[in-house]
């Protein structure tokens, strides 16, 4: 029986899969958060026979991510790493998937930032002199009073920013993969992998490569648990604010992203020391405190979510092959910038796997081979 003939919304359970004849694939992608989903789209588009295995019941950072992308960062308002390449690529990618799935989840919009010190004011004035730089546009405007925010010295706006409704992107993508009969909903156990010549076998699936995109659960994978990825917990709130402006994002120590119906996502926290992936009262206190520093309006917390980011030690993504098992690959380490990094670096990984490019050292998993002690 062919996989495409199975009902169940196009998804296969592992026990269904086990009963079937060997299915020859090019790639088996494990994990369908931002990393795995973006990668799978690109593999399929280029004609590679791909199967995606994702455990839909596990918590995924991508499902709680606020989805913000912002070309400037830090106290000096500098351009983010490689934004001149990542941002146009990202925009083309998400627009293409919107067209493919006939949905909307990509929302370019300016970010309004209050300026609250003379030092910040000077830096912004300096940066706004570079207004003709196409990749960043910082321009100072009077504050918009639709949603009154607290600011002493005015506000500035960034251009080339916005957000992706990541949960919506993932849901339509999973439906698309399911409709193509290439999504399996189960927990993938790496110890079940068998190696044969240069290929891998998992149940009845034979693939040239398995690409692990497991987010912070890399730590349970005996092949890759040596990587310096630091699980970083984050929390966000959904808040209701009457009379807000739904065409822009507000940002200071927290951001407010409009989600329609006077609801906003407000985030995020960063914690390196935690016991679980659940929302906490300290996270709630931190976010509401910063929110009250930003806006003058009343608000109501309607939801509180938490997730764990896979942040690499050097804040760069990690992609490439296992040091010994060349049939195993990895795409991880997207940290707090999965939305903007995933499309470009998934593409780099695909070109690398096709033998068209070598990976730059700063993103190549090889920079971490020194941590590997062959305990897999
Ligand atoms: C509170 C919060 C706010 C954030 N806000 C932003 C933001 O505004 N902008 C931004 O760019 N980024 C943001 N991020 C970061 C972003 O979420 C991450 O960069 C991104 O989601 C990482 O994606 P991933 O696919 O690597 O991991 P995940 O999203 O964790 O996905 C991993 C997937 O793999 C599956 N999986 C793992 N192991 C297995 C297995 N063995 N078998 C089967 N399935 C498996 C899991 O079920 C999951 O679906 C935020 C994160 C958090 C927590």
Blueprint (SSEs and pairs):
Layout: E1 11-12, H1 14-18, E2 23-30, H2 34-45, E3 50-54, H3 61-64, E4 68-69, E5 72-73, E6 78-79, H4 83-101, E7 106-108, E8 111-114, H5 118-128, E9 138-141, E10 155-158, E11 162-164, H6 166-179, E12 183-185, E13 194-196, E14 199-202, E15 205-212, E16 229-240, E17 249-251, E18 255-258, E19 263-267, H7 281-294, E20 300-312, E21 318-321, E22 328-332, H8 338-353
Parallel strand pairs: 1-12, 2-3, 2-15, 3-12, 8-17, 15-22
Antiparallel strand pairs: 4-11, 5-6, 7-11, 8-10, 9-10, 13-14, 14-15, 16-19, 16-20, 17-18, 18-19, 21-22
Helix pairs in contact: 2-8, 4-6, 4-8
Bound molecules: flavin-adenine dinucleotide.
Q: Can you describe what's shown?
A:
The chain is of the alpha/beta class and 376 residues long. The two termini are 34 Å apart. The chain folds into two domains: 3-63 and 167-228 and 314-371, FAD/NAD(P)-binding domain (3-Layer(bba) Sandwich), CATH 3.50.50.60; 110-160 and 230-312, 2-Layer Sandwich (D-Amino Acid Oxidase, Chain A, domain 2), CATH 3.30.9. It has helices at 14-18, 34-45, 61-64, 83-101, 118-128, 166-179, 281-294, 338-353, and strands at residues 11-12, 23-30, 50-54, 68-69, 72-73, 78-79, 106-108, 111-114, 138-141, 155-158, 162-164, 183-185, 194-196, 199-202, 205-212, 229-240, 249-251, 255-258, 263-267, 300-312, 318-321, 328-332. The strands form four sheets. Strands 1, 2, 3, 12, 13, 14, 15, 21 and 22 form a nine-stranded mixed beta sheet that branches. Strands 9-10-8-17-18-19-16-20 form an eight-stranded mixed beta sheet, sandwiched between helices. α4 (83-101) crosses α6 and α4 (83-101) crosses α8. The chain is built from eight helices and 22 strands. The relative contact order is 0.18. The structure holds flavin-adenine dinucleotide. Flavin-adenine dinucleotide binds next to α2, β3, α3, β16 and β20.
């Amino acid at each position: 029986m062919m996989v495409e003939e199975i009902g169940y919304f196009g998804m296969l359970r592992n026990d269904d899969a086990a009963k079937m004849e060997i299915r020859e694939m090019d790639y088996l992608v494990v994990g369908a958060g931002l990393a795995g989903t973006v990668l799978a789209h690109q593999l399929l588009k280029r004609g590679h026979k791909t199967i995606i295995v994702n455990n839909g019941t596990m918590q995924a950072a991508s499902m709680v991510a606020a989805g913000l992308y912002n070309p400037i960062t830090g106290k000096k308002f500098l351009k983010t790493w490689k934004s001149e390449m990542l941002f146009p690529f990202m925009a083309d990618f998400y627009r293409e998937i919107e067209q493919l799935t006939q949905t909307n989840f990509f929302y370019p919009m300016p970010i309004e930032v209050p300026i609250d010190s003379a030092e910040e004011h000077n830096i912004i004035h300096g940066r706004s002199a570079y207004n003709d730089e196409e990749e960043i546009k910082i321009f100072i405007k009077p504050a918009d009073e639709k949603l009154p925010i607290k600011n002493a010295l005015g506000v500035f706006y960034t251009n080339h920013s916005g957000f992706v409704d990541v949960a919506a992107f993932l849901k339509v993508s999973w439906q698309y993969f399911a409709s193509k009969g290439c999504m399996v909903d189960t927990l993938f156990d790496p110890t079940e992998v068998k190696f044969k010549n240069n290929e891998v076998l998992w149940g009845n699936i034979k693939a040239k490569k398995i690409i692990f995109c497991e987010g912070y659960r890399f730590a349970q994978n005996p092949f890759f648990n040596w990587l310096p990825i630091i699980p970083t917990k984050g929390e966000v709130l959904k808040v209701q604010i009457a009379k807000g402006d739904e065409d822009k994002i507000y940002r200071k120590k927290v951001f407010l992203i409009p989600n329609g119906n006077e609801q906003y996502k407000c985030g995020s926290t960063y914690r390196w020391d935690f016991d679980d992936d659940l929302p906490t009262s300290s996270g709630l206190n931190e976010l509401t405190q910063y929110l009250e520093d930003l806006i003058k309006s009343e608000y109501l917390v309607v939801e509180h979510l938490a997730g764990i980011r896979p942040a690499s030690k050097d804040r760069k993504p990690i992609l490439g092959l296992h040091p010994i098992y060349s049939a195993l690959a990895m795409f991880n380490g997207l940290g707090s910038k999965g939305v903007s990094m995933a499309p470009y670096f998934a593409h780099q990984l695909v070109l690398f796997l096709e033998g068209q490019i070598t990976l730059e050292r700063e993103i190549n998993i090889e920079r971490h081979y020194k941590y590997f002690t062959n305990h897999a």
